[in-house]
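Researcher: Here's the sequence for the chain we discussed earlier.
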Amino acid sequence: MSKKLLYTVLAGALSISVLAACGEPVDENAPVDDPATIDEPVEDDEADAE
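Model: Thanks. This is the structure I predict for it:
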């Protein structure tokens, strides 16, 4: 592989990684709206039958 091609590929990878780091910061304490994580009381069907 020629040095010119190698340097071009490395420069492209560096450019992409720099642009990827320029996004909005992620808020680690943001609430998650995942229904699986919401604690809801479990209805007991057997209690209703008695």
